[in-house]
Give the backbone structure.
Amino acid sequence: MSARDDILAAIRSAAVPPAPPAQLPSAPVQQADGLHDEFLCVLNEVGGQGAIRAEGQPMEALLAERLGAARADAIVLRGRFAVAENAAVYVDAADLNARNDIVRAEHLVVIVPFSAIVPTMHEAMRLMPADSACGWFLSGPSKTADIEQSLVFGAQGSRTHHVIFDRGT
């Protein structure tokens, strides 16, 4: 037996048995009033912008108002649900034309149904699609302060990040 075989045999014999998956809290947290306000406040703190589209308000008009000239360069995505505690929106790869849309966009707009908001990531984990091949939680624009400790937006993704809660969906 070679040294390689001895090492591999030792690794296999010391293997840790798989652990059962973590269990989420058993009772779902009830949605409280003010989740949208909390979400929008946190989104603003992380550099994003948000709005709530009123019923009957044309989406294109709202996008033009929020983005101005940047509307032409914006990519609009569908978000499945939002998380109030960290202003994250879950975007599933199945809802995208191309997975790289998220990182190639200069200006990213994520539209979320108004009713699709939960207070915490614990609740968000319950909503994760079991059959999803890939998904992301997006919160605010891409940013870094690696270079000379100067905050730069759009380093590895969008420079602006907008979330629109849609009462029409």
Remarks:
- The chain has one domain: 32-166.
- DSSP finds five helices and ten strands in the chain.
- The two ends are 65 Å apart (CA to CA).
